[in-house]
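User: Working on a comparison across species. This one is Bcr/CflA family efflux transporter from Bosea vaviloviae. Can you predict its structure so I can line it up against the others?
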Amino acid sequence: MNAAAIRAKPTLTVLVAISTLQPIALNLLAPSTPALARHFTASYATIQLTLTLFLVAVALMQLVIGPLSDRFGRRPCVNAGIALFLLGSVLGALSHSTDMLLLARVLEGAGSGSVFALSRAIIRDSASRDEAASQIASVTMVMVVAPMLAPYLGGHIETWFGWRMIFWFMTAFGAGVLLLTIARLPETAPNLGQRSPLLGVFRAFPLLIGDRGFVVNVVALSMTSASFFGFVAAAPFIVVETMGHGPDAYGAYFILNALGYMAGNFAMSRLAVKLGTKRLIRNGLIISFAAMTVALALSLSPVWTPLALFLPLAFNAAGNGLTIPGATAEALSARPELAGSAAGLMGAIQLGSSALTTILISWLVTLWPQALVVMMWLMMAAGLFALRFNRIAQD
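Assistant: Here's the predicted structure for Bcr/CflA family efflux transporter from Bosea vaviloviae:
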């Protein structure tokens, strides 16, 4: 890390703004998936491709944007990603077919995903490992207001104005973020201007895959994230179609999930430097596993209501709030000089696994709604096993 990169620290406002595009684009439309299925006379699984393809686009773009930002700089790549997000949002508002709608979501995913990945690389450019975990948690704690309010807001926008207004809202928000980054985002890439063959920037991937610390933390991160995206994909169907509530009810209950996640982020931001990131990652997974065990028991009981679904998941979210920023910082610290490439590969694996999860759960939940909770429980168990296996190997 060079001196210029250390001096060039973006403000919290800029970091939060560029970090919120992806969660807003993801969660704002979620309550409208049943309405979209009715509008386009399509199956629920088909409309859920608006989430799946969004995540696939995020994953693929991060493979490219991370290495390119190492060479050409974070700032131009961030601005290009926001512009792509704007194009997708406008296209979504004007969609007249499912194909056009899905293309819009691909563009939104590619744009917002690249910006989200680079926001983490920007933090790592100018902070140590534990400081990065603390800063990522602080940014996430503030930006979690977006996914907390987005389902609630999206459900009411769809109820009052129709689903197209959701895309126009995202267009306006994206335009504001672009103006902010043009005016206030500094360049932080440590190796900016270093000349190398274009394909050479991708040679970092084998080095990262061969690093056990990187792989273990990416597994923990991916399992945690995939369980969340599976929840986002299936919970609206469960609340609206199985339990018989409206989309605004899903948005209201989702606030419990966001509050839990915010609590975990707050704990990470305050304790990362004092207790160490690795310890907090493990504690986060333990909390999530315990919460999902309770959620699984409740889902198989006669009292499975929205509250019985969302309340234990709020504690699961608190655990996620410890695990996600901690595992992210640990993975990026495996090779600090390759933070952009690490962010891209990490994000691709994280969101790629999440995309596969949404495909599977969108089908399973129509056959057996409780499949969502079972899958989330298994993923938390897998994350814990990965950490345990790594500790045994080190011993």
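For your comparison, note: The chain is about 85% helix and 0% strand.

User: Helpful, thanks.
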